[in-house]
Amino acid sequence: MHDRLHLARVIRRATADCPPVEVPRRLCEALSRGLPVDAVTMSLLTDTPSRQLLCASNEMARVLEEVQFTVMEGPCIEAASTGEPVHATDLPAAAGRWPLFVAALHERCPDVAAVHAFPLWFGDYVLGSVDFACRAPGGMPADAVEQAAEAAEAAALALLPTQRMLLEDDDYPSWEPSDVVRAHWSDTHQAVSVVAARKRTSVATALALMRARAFATGRTLAEVTADILGS
After folding, report:
1. pTM
2. pLDDT tens string 56-69
3. How far apart are CA 108 and CA 63, in angstroms?
4. Quick one: pLDDT at residue 126?
């Protein structure tokens, strides 16, 4: 219990009196330092076409985020849609549950052995999720999982005062990694509108077509987006 409270306290201190644009980066740093994990990624509206990346702690986190963003399945999407934690402690065994996610992640980042995902609750509704990736087989030990759950609650509380800016800002925030954030925040939404207009179809269908193209060519959704906006 002491460790759980300590990590939650660290998160509160790290984000206290912090400019809104700095909050996601500080959260990622605090979670990465405070838990026995190898990558942390956090997003809003995770299980919707309006998904917005908040932070990715390193390259492993970026790949984990890109794969789930592209194939629209995986632990963080399930955590956001169900409101329950998801513990994928044996990724090969999870292939039946998320076949596209497991195959793509194994190809791009085979070092990931386990992923723990927690919903970000904002009052009575889930506004996103946070992922913790581990190289160690089995993922985090039980006590660390409890710490992570408490940390996810503290992270959601830290984000709550900034939610209006997070969801309504017309421009993507200056968060890092800026190229990935830009792709998730605005570029993909612009590309979806372009495809919808060209194909005379709905936004949802346009996004599905882009995801299918990305998966069929072994590319990320961000790369497909760049092609569309550059054409």
Report:
1. 0.79
2. 899 999 899 888 88
3. 7
4. 87
d(CA 64, CA 134): 11
Contacts for 172 with CB less than 8 Å, ≥ 6 apart:
181, 182, 185, 186
- Which position has the higher pLDDT, 175 or 157? 157
What is the assigned CATH class of domain 2-166? Answer: alpha beta
Long-range pairs, 201-207, Cβ under 8 A, ≥24: 203/49, 204/49, 207/49
Distance CA 53, CA 137 (A): 27
For 97-114, the pLDDT digits (tens) are: 999 899 989 988 999 999
Could you tell me if 65 and 74 are in contact, meaning their C-beta atoms sit under 8 angstroms apart? no
Tell me if 99 sits within 8 A of 63, measured CB to CB: no
Cβ contact 34:124 at 8 Å? no
Domain ranges of the chain: 2-166, 178-230
Cβ atoms < 10 Å from Cβ of 79: 27
Distance between CA 42 and CA 120 in Å, rounded?
A: 9
Nearest-5° angle of CA 171, CA 179, CA 98? 105
The burial class, CB within 10 Å (0-12 / 13-18 / 19+), for 10 is: middle
Q: Which residues contact 32 (CB under 8 A, 6 or more apart)?
A: 39, 40, 57, 58
Which of 164, 161, 141, 144 minimizes the C-alpha distance to 152? Answer: 144
Cα separation, 25 vs 30, in Å, equals 9
